[in-house]
Design a protein that fits this description.
Elements lengths: L37 H15 L6 E5 L14 E4 L5 H11 L4 E7 H7 L1 H10 L4 E6 L34 H7 L4 E6 L3 H13 L4 E6 L3 H5 L7 H11 E3 L19 E8 L24 H12 L3
The structure holds thiamine diphosphate, iron/sulfur cluster and magnesium ion.
Length: about 300
């Protein structure tokens, strides 16, 4: 934002901010609640766009519906606010028709993994050249804090006032199991790591999936007595454990146990041909493993073949 010098304060602090050109200032003030994590995630994406060195007109941002789905509207690249659950197929169309563009989807846990879950798994299976940033605030924030597929066991929401009894998705494990080439989980506390992960996703040929745990003090923090967004950040600082080689089937988030770690990291990075039907080249089913991560993936593959 530009901070203009005023008569009462003649000191000009800054003329422009480096990210000004990547934000749509005319869309501010934004709609987000105080201490919502979504703004930090937008910042990381914007920073990654700048550091990618790729011209702005070669980036495309696609969102679905929800508070997280508002992200695309604030970013000054070709951006699309699509219908609920349809961000991924919309982005797929762009990525397939214009492989020269770098298409990123930013949307919520509900949008991407509930109504849009089917699209997500098939885009990962096909290894469509997309970066998907899934903002996981453990609920449907925009519509009043309902439970969704990432709501942790026993967590309260407007539709589970006595605690959720459904087993939630372990999203990195899901993304890996269905074929994503790059899989990471970070939180809004891990600003630098998140920006680096998005940058890797942008440069990755194939499907990159990045889960970001993000405070929703209004929809999720309040019914679960977490306190404000800062308190949720303190929880992340206390409980997060970085392990790039984590055994993915076991990185579920146990909210009830304050001692249990929340595992974050860049878990999967493999190379396989991206989906490109126009070229007519069949995708190989054999991934080329990154030797540094071979152990973790071997474990994961064994567990998948064992049906765990
Ligand atoms: C077809 C359809 N069904 C339901 C809705 C209502 N709706 C709007 S946003 C939303 C949930 C969004 O949750 P999430 O993606 O987690 O985003 P958040 O608000 O938590 O960031 C729902 C159910 C809708 N807009 N369209
Ligand atoms: S309801 Fe939750 S996700 Fe939506 S803006 Fe408020 S804090 Fe953020
Ligand atoms: Mg949500």
């Amino acid at each position: 934002m530009t901070t203009a010098a005023s008569a009462s304060n003649p000191t000009r602090i800054v003329e422009t901010h480096p990210i000004d050109k990547v934000l749509r200032a005319d869309r501010f003030p934004h709609i987000l609640c105080p201490a919502c994590g979504i703004g930090s995630i937008i910042h990381c994406y914007v920073q990654a766009i700048i550091e990618s060195g790729i011209p702005l007109n070669q980036h495309v941002c696609v969102s679905g519906i929800g508070c997280s789905g508002r992200a695309a509207g604030y970013i000054n690249v070709d951006s699309y606010h699509t219908t609920h659950g349809r961000a991924v197929p919309f982005a797929l169309g762009i990525a397939v028709y214009r492989p020269d563009l770098h298409v990123t989807v930013i949307s919520g846990d509900g949008d991407l993994t509930s109504i849009g879950g089917n699209h997500l798994i098939h885009a990962a299976r096909r290894n469509v050249n997309l970066t998907v940033i899934c903002i996981n605030n453990f609920n449907y924030g925009m519509t009043g804090g309902q439970a969704g597929p990432t709501t942790p066991l026993s967590a309260k929401s407007s539709t589970t006032p006595f605690g959720s009894w459904e087993r939630p998705f372990n999203l990195p494990h899901l993304a890996h199991a269905v074929g994503a080439s790059f899989v990471a989980r970070w939180t809004v506390l891990h600003i630098r790591q998140l920006k680096e992960a998005v940058l890797r996703g942008i440069h990755k040929e194939g499907f990159a999936f990045i889960e970001v745990l993000s405070p929703c003090p209004t929809g999720f923090g309040r019914p679960n007595d977490i306190g404000d967004g800062l308190e949720e950040m303190r929880r992340y600082r206390r409980r997060c454990h970085v392990d790039d080689n984590a055994y993915l089937p076991e990185i579920d988030i146990d909210l009830t146990n304050d001692e249990s770690p929340i595992v974050v990291g860049n878990f999967v990075d493999v190379d396989r041909p991206p989906f490109h039907p126009a070229l007519g080249e069949p995708a190989s089913t054999t991934a080329k493993p990154d030797p540094d991560r071979a152990d973790a993936r071997t474990q994961s593959r064994e567990s998948i073949s064992n049906g765990r």
